Please model this.
Amino acid sequence: MKRTIVTLHGRVQAVGFRDAVQRIASRYAVAGTVRNLRDGERLEIDAEGEDDALRAFVDDVLAHPPRHARVEAVERCDAEPLGRDGFAVARTA
Model:
């Protein structure tokens, strides 16, 4: 089990990105959250699952952003898995 936190920079808020990420997550065996960050220019995906599923999920998100989104930069970092179930949209942080 692995956990990764992916931060997307650019036009990623008010374009349906959180809902798109949640829909994509339903196709994979991943758990976690997606949320907007208060600066208005970043979105954070905090996901965990088996390595292959996690990699495929993140690749799918990056390959299929919402129509009006524009991802300008991507940051990734690994973290300790929390053993979560399900995938949800979280409150803005």
